[in-house]
Design a protein that fits this description.
The longest helix has 84 residues. By secondary structure, the chain is mainly alpha-helical. It contains two helices and no strands. The model has no long low-confidence stretch (mean pLDDT 89). The two termini are 35 Å apart.
Length: 148
């Protein structure tokens, strides 16, 4: 016997699709955040190595112009790192928003899934009860025939 169709099946399918889209959006945001964080870490490590090298070579520099170029380079790198940090922070906020959106979509889907499970359980119980009533009726009829 086929089970009764869940009335909100279309809504459940829609919410499953929404959850899948939100999961993909979250994964893309996470990947972008991790990529930007890795870039920032590499940039910071590079500047740290160059600063160390500069400290060791400082006595070897021949002119004020070379010193000025190093100073300009480090100023530019500090600005780039600051911009990258802001970008990473911004991507972190986007990631948090996407996580919240995904959680909401998952909750919405789970509510309908639990309702579907509840309705299926109620349907099975009703079918079991009807079957038991039918079996009781058969038993009563057989008993009535046996008494004759």
């Amino acid at each position: 016997m086929a089970g009764k169709r869940f009335e909100l099946e279309q809504v459940l399918k829609y919410r499953m699709d929404v959850e899948r889209m939100r999961r993909q959006e979250f994964a893309a945001a996470k990947q972008e955040f991790e990529h930007a964080s890795d870039q920032l870490s590499r940039e910071e490590a590079l500047v740290e190595n160059l600063a160390s090298e500069f400290c060791h070579r400082q006595g070897e520099l021949e002119s004020i112009e070379e010193m000025r170029r190093y100073a300009d380079f480090f100023a530019r790198k500090r600005e780039e790192i600051k911009d990258r940090k802001e970008r990473v922070e911004q991507l972190g906020h986007v990631l948090s928003e996407r996580r919240e959106t995904l959680l909401d979509a998952t909750k919405d889907k789970k509510v309908l899934e639990s309702l579907k499970d509840k309705k299926a359980k109620e349907f099975r119980q009703a079918m079991d009860q009807k079957e038991q009533s039918f079996m009781d009726e058969i038993a009563i009829q057989k008993k009535g025939e046996g008494d004759r």
